[in-house]
Design a protein that fits this description.
Rossmann fold; 8 helices; 224 residues; five-stranded parallel beta sheet; 2 domains; Arc Repressor Mutant, subunit A; binds calcium ion; four-stranded antiparallel beta sheet; alpha/beta
């Protein structure tokens, strides 16, 4: 799960953010001032930083500038109490990825966090090629040696999940969460059937898969 550093000097707000993000399953660390924040962010790997602008010792802008200068690339979401456009622009110029104006709804912040993490994880490329297959995710088209293939939307999602994790084993329940959605009831057999179909459409020799590899007792790995 993603690790988030929350930098906020106002105790009630800080605690609220911490509780809320933990409920979402994130690991959360709090920092109360800019100096601590800048230090912790360089000592520990964080996937995302929520950074208040008005902080003791060092303000959020300075912290952001310092982290970017140190070569850290994790997404930074600035919290600004002001609605001045200049603040937002300055934050973005200093390398913040997004900003949220106080007061904000926890739901809005959660959505921004999720989006920033998704962008940072690279998502999937718009186009991907392996073997004779060309996939265009923007157009939902896949071709084999130039000839259009008939992939269902679910097969596109499966393929995207594989490409995102290429070279790594995906367990069936990871595929289930990522493709069908958490809480859906789908048997292993159904997952296997879809992968068989995907192989029929995309493998040069479906009976001897080269790209969609079964890893016995665990799941599948995409070697494309
Ligand atoms: Ca503050």
């Amino acid at each position: 799960m993603a690790r988030i550093l929350v930098v906020e000097d106002e105790p009630i707000l800080a605690r609220g953010l911490e509780d809320d993000l933990k409920l979402e399953g994130y690991e959360v660390e709090l920092a109360r001032d800019g100096e601590t924040a800048a230090r912790r962010a360089q000592e520990q790997p964080f996937d995302l930083i929520i950074l208040d602008v008005m902080l003791p010792h060092k303000d959020g802008f300075e912290v952001c500038r310092e982290l970017r200068r140190a070569g850290l690339r994790m997404p930074v979401i600035m919290l600004t109490a002001k609605t001045q456009e200049s603040d937002k622009v300055l934050g973005l110029e200093l390398g913040a990825d997004d900003y949220v104006t106080k007061p904000f709804s926890p739901r809005e912040l959660r959505a921004r966090v999720k989006a920033a993490l998704r962008r940072a994880s690279g998502g999937i490329p718009e186009a991907y090629r392996f073997g004779e297959i060309d996939v265009d995710f923007a157009r939902y088209e896949a071709r084999r040696a130039g000839k259009l293939l008939d992939l269902t939307p679910l097969e596109f999602k499966l393929l995207a999940a594989f490409i995102r994790s290429r070279g790594r084993v995906l367990q069936r329940d990871q595929l289930l969460d990522g493709v069908w959605g958490r809480g859906t009831f789908v048997t292993d057999r159904v997952i296997d059937t879809h992968i068989t179909n995907l192989r029929k459409k995309l493998e040069p020799e479906p009976a001897q898969p080269r790209y969609f590899i079964s890893v016995r007792g665990v799941g599948y790995r995409f070697d494309g």
